[in-house]
Amino acid sequence: MISQVDTRPARGGVGESTYRPDGIPKVDGTYTYSSDLYMDKMLFGVTLRCPHPKATIIKLDIGPAVAMTGVHAVLTAADIPGENLFGLETPDQPILVGDQVEYEGQAVALVAADDPEIARRAVEAIEVEYQVQTPLTDPEAAEETDSVFHRVRCRRGPQDARGAVVVEGYYEVGMQDQAPLGTESGLAVPDGEGGVDLHIATQWTHTDRDQIVAGLGVADEAVRVHHAGVGGAFGAREDVSLQIHLCLLALYTDRPVKMEYSRAESFVGHVHRHPALIWMRHEADPDGTLRRIEAKIILDGGAYRSTSDSVIGNAVYHAAGPYRCDSVAVDGIAVRTNNPPCGAMRGFGAVQACFGHEAQMDKLADALGMDRIDFRIKNAVRQGDPLATSGQIIETSAPVVDLLERVRAMPLPTDLTGEDPRHLPGGTGLTTSLAEVSRGVGYAIGIKNLCFSAGFDDYAEARVVITPFGVEVHTAAVEVGQGLGEVCAQIARTALGIEDVVVFYDDTSQIGSAGSTSASRQTQMTGGAVLEAARMVRELALHRGGGDELDSEGVWRKGRLVTTMEDLLAHGNLEYHTRFHHPPTDQPDENGLGNLHVDWGFAVHRAVVDVDAELGLFRVVQVDTVQDVGYMINPRSVVGQIEGGTVQGIGLATLEEIVVKNGIIQNPTFTDYLLPTFLDAPPINVEVVEEPSAFGPFGAKGVGEPPTVSSTAAVVSAIRDATGLELNRTPVRPEHVALPGSPI
Amino acid sequence: MRVQLTVNGESRSFDTKGSESLLFALREYLRLTGSKGACEQGECGSCSVVLDGNLVCSCLVMAVDAAGSEVLTVEGLGGSELHPVQKALIETGAVQCGFCTPGFVVAAAELLKETLSPSPEDIREELAGNICRCTGYGAILRGIETLVGEA
Amino acid sequence: MEVIHPTDLDEALAALAAHPEAVLLAGGTDLMVEVNFDQIRPEKVILLRRLAELQDVSRQRIGAGVTFRRLESGDHQALAQLARTIGSPQIRAAGTLGGNIGTASPAGDALPFLAGLDAEIELSSKDGTRRVRWDRFFLGVKQTALRPGELITAVILPTDLPDCQEFAKIGQRSAMVISIASACVFRWRDGRTRVAMGSVGPTPIRARQAEEMMSAESNPGPAALQEFARLVSEEVRPISDHRGTADYRRHASGVLARRLLERCLAK
Q1: CATH fold group of domain A34-134+205-219+228-258
Q2: Which residues contact C134 (CB under 8 A, 6 or more apart)?
Q3: How far apart are alpha carbons A225 and A148 in whole angstroms?
Q4: pLDDT recorded at residue A416
Q5: % of chain A beyond a pLDDT of 70
Q6: A268 pLDDT more than 80
Q7: Contact C41/B126, CB-based, under 8 Å?
Q8: Is the pLDDT of residue A2 over 60?
Q9: CB A427 to CB C174 under 8 A?
Q10: Which of A433, A154, A122, A195 is CA-nearest to residue A312?
Q11: Chains near C, with 3+ CB pairs < 8 A?
């Protein structure tokens, strides 16, 4: 149900494409990102990293670095006052390596110096010798030797169900990088009393704080984490990177310390999207009814756990996609190797699952001789159905059929004409003429859980204050660019009938956690908290003012202003602080069943791709997408999320992969880790379905991840359609198309 | 070495320590932090500035080589009012995290100065050196297109 | 770091003679990447960006300081085509032909053009000027015949320019990409054909057997074109790396060369 609000509408409320308050400072260059922070007398921190994926440190002599002029600190594992461990879900990774290195680029020592150049030279001066060992880099070998973080087993329904038509496939997803444009950076400022203020680009200030205080061995209050301007996140900033390092250096030197990773360092400095090996088997009746789904998914978690346990859960529980099926067996294994650690990235396990299940659905439709969309519609989940894996009844809106029908009805692009190379595969490289192009169309639909799942106590705090100068909204939620701040302001405006709203991003000492800016959760969670707090503060105002309506002039009763705002606030501001929880979820039972999720979002993509099959080059011509968004609090921002998320998925389909060989990243630069450019990004036609969610404010659903889940699968499906090739691996490389069957 | 140059119409100077880039000098010595560093190799365009009339990546200009040059950065576009490109990018929602935005603003303003009415494909090609990770470029294209044909 | 800012070519050559170890800085698009990545720390730098003598362009002689942005609209079609594929507009506005030659990367986009035309590289020093043909200049991966004290000042093209010249480059992305393979095909009305390939060997590769075979064909049919492609694929010497496999590069070389020749034949 759409929540009812009684106040007079304030301009700039929910449903309007209002302008974000950070727009002007972002276009004029004055917005302060974490990398722009500056303080007099600040020092610069640099990290010594191990170049080997597996090694024992047999000698570590910091003497030569300590002796250098301008060097103020050289810290090693021995200098960590608290516990030398961190980790988002489980602390398992040393803040600085003591003796055993488990992946390339792991941090060994820290230097703080007067300028970055001196700090870099000091890092080079540290004498370190490694005994190099053979890394474990094959995920299947890791599974066989039980080098495993977590196994998830899901068995639902009769296990002997069979269908007459069977398809089976192996699929692979490469390691994608979030590649936010802003690299990791921050500034730590000691308070002179043993504490520190950290200004940082992050996704979750409170878990940063918790991990920092454990490493420093200090009380929670001693560390205040402030969210500084964030240059994109997409999951890369959910884990700690330089947070603890900065605080260690600042406390040791008693000086402000700034750190900023280079791009190459960023590639080893944060977790990535898990590469996946997937096997799936689907069985259906001749009429197209899905009878049985089996899958095995191996995700390479790399050297440390990060969020691997949750990501493999997500992959397993979304392995069947948004389809009905009452006989399911899915096994998921997150393995431990000496590859780069993997964790959160937009889509969080559902991307990998979708790549598999949508390829299977195409294959199965073809085997049945059915239209691919009709086949999906026949098996689509509807509201009230159980999720095929966990069996949980889908109580939220689930307009899967509507999405599929609408995307099919969207107009296809016209045929290519002319020889403008920018319209052809190969682009301005002039590789391809019109005659060498064949066109393919592919569809994919995805399902993504929204907010935290499986029994996690997911909450967000917010405080709403009515002051003589307008309304203040306080939150510790992180604005990573998606537009959360304006969403919170819009919710407050609508709830209070007051236009003048300012959002304050409080530090960790000023307010409790808002949870992570991830899992598509902040519109529902922090938005939900703001709505709850705003409604309560409105009740306080109506009670104090003796009326039935509130707006910026004051409290009204039966259409007459009875208490002016000045009088209303004569004895102080009105405020309400809340901690908003979403409806509880359960942990899975021994068969992997239960009410694990609180909400889902769905999106469908249709990709049209032109392929030069002889050279294996492609151009994504157009993508059409319809997304289940609940309710659009800010339509412009929703479209922005859908377009941007879709292009990240296109990147994974056609370009983006961290190539790891023997545990070493081969392409840690933007020259060789290729992101889609303006010429690679097609026009994206966006439609939405607004059916209210189970619990989001005004019926809103989180919209950030669903567009990334299915666009990859749709693009690869289109390339298959154009070429007739199986193409079971993403990203698709030219040689996969031009020389099918050649080794990957 | 003392480097004297004109930045956004003002005479400025700084001392270099060595071979640092113009981007570094703008950000660290002149505290003009609008230009961003994201790749340090000319692959993202976040540091785009106009150097003596040419759009370049300031990360690939050695600061000492900018001595005597005229440099235009994002801070020099607009003034009491926003530049039309800045306004347009806000209006179409082309700003999310915004880290690429200053580079896009400078590059797009330069493109519109150099090319009278670029086609959508011209805009895509001429701005292909500016990477945006958030928007998927659609809103950026729509924003710039609103300015095409305006004198 | 010492900075030398010559006002003309003579000053630059004198400075280079006095400091042969100095680093030369023109567009900066290669050098500054190494600086930013802390791979080199120059002690002495000679600034070349503003030297007027390196900016001259004529039909037969192209100054080393000419940027790819300028070459995009130049006389030589293949040179204009390849210039358009180099980096981004920002890179093309700074990066120079001389820089591309001096870096001598296997993926240097201008190199197949020089190879296909048997261009000479003009090298100047305080003691004079010499011309070195491309195949005696490019010696290996980032290895050239440039001697200490020498500066690349121009590229000299032959007077007998082809009637058709075509360039193409394969990258995984539509713009701003390092080539996986590139090709230049030149053909004269009398049938003479030349093929030069980039990114498929340590230096640009001329497919001389393919050239010989095709130069004898006045009106090549599909079988001849196929044979031409096969010979090109045989003559390249690619490696596998994270950008592409050797097999793909070999295959793509033949396809590219054949397609470019077809474009010439269609004219």
Answers
A1: Aldehyde Oxidoreductase; domain 3 (3.90.1170)
A2: C111, C114, C115, C118, C119, C120, C121, C204
A3: 33
A4: 84
A5: 98
A6: yes
A7: no
A8: no
A9: yes
A10: A154
A11: A, B
Cβ contacts of C256 within 8 Å, gap of 6 or more: A431, A615, C168, C170, C181, C182, C183, C197
Torsion of CA A193, A198, A204, A208, to 10 degrees: -60
Instruction: Identify whether B104 is part of a domain.
Output: yes
Q: How far apart are CA C134 and CA C121, in angstroms?
A: 6
Residues B6, B63 within the same domain: yes
| Topology of domain A276-453+589-738, CATH | Aldehyde Oxidoreductase; domain 4 (3.30.365)
Q: What does the pLDDT look like over A294-337, one tens digit per residue?
A: 999 999 999 999 999 999 999 999 999 999 999 999 999 999 99
Residues of C in contact with B128 (CB under 8 A): 88-89, 174-176
Q: Provide mean pLDDT across the span A588-610.
A: 97
Mean pLDDT, chain A, whole residue set: 96
Q: Which residues of A374-392 are buried (b: 16+ CB within 10 A; e: fewer)?
A: ebbbbbbbeeebbbbbbbb
Q: In this complex, which chains have at least 3 CB pairs below 8 Å with chain B? A: A, C
Within a domain: B88: yes
Residue numbers in chain C where pLDDT is lower than 70: none
- Beta strands A501-505 and A470-475 are parallel
For C222, residues 6+ apart whose C-beta sits below 8 A from its C-beta are none
Residues B45 and B6 in one domain: yes
Strand-pair partners of C164: C187
Answer yes or no: do A22 and B140 touch at CB < 8 A.
no
ipTM of the assembly?
0.98
CA angle C253, C255, C261 (to 5 degrees): 100
- Residue B65 contacts C where some CB pair is shorter than 8 Å: yes
Structural domain total, chain B: 2
pTM above 0.90, yes or no: yes
Q: Which CATH class is domain C164-265?
A: alpha beta
- Nearest residue of B to residue C177, measured between CA atoms: B43
Residues of chain A contacting B34 with CB distance shorter than 8 Å: 28-30
Q: Which of the listed residues B50, B73, B96 is the one where a domain comes to its end?
A: B73
> Does A8 score more than 80 pLDDT?
no
Closest CA to A262 of B29, B133, C26, C39: C39
> B46 is in which domain, residue-wise?
2-73
Helices assigned H by DSSP within B1-151 = 22-24, 84-91, 101-114, 120-126, 138-145
Q: Is residue B100 part of a domain?
A: yes
CA pair distance B4, B17, nearest whole angstrom: 14
| C-contacting residues in A 201-260 (Cβ below 8 Å) | none
Q: How confident is the model at residue A10 (pLDDT cuts 50, 70, 90)?
A: confident
Query: Does A351 score more than 90 pLDDT?
Result: yes
Other Cβ atoms less than 10 A from the Cβ of C81: the count is 23
CATH label of the domain that carries residue B9:
3.10.20.30
Report, as an integer, the average pLDDT of A54-58: 98
pLDDT at B79: 80
The pLDDT assigned to A743 comes to: 57
Count of Cβ atoms closer than 10 Å to residue A81 Cβ: 12
DSSP, res C250? H
Q: What is the pLDDT of residue A9?
A: 65
Give CA–CA dist B64/C237, Å, rounded: 41
Tell me how far the alpha carbon of residue A46 is from its chain's centroid: 27
Confidence at residue A233, expressed as pLDDT on a 0 to 100 scale: 97
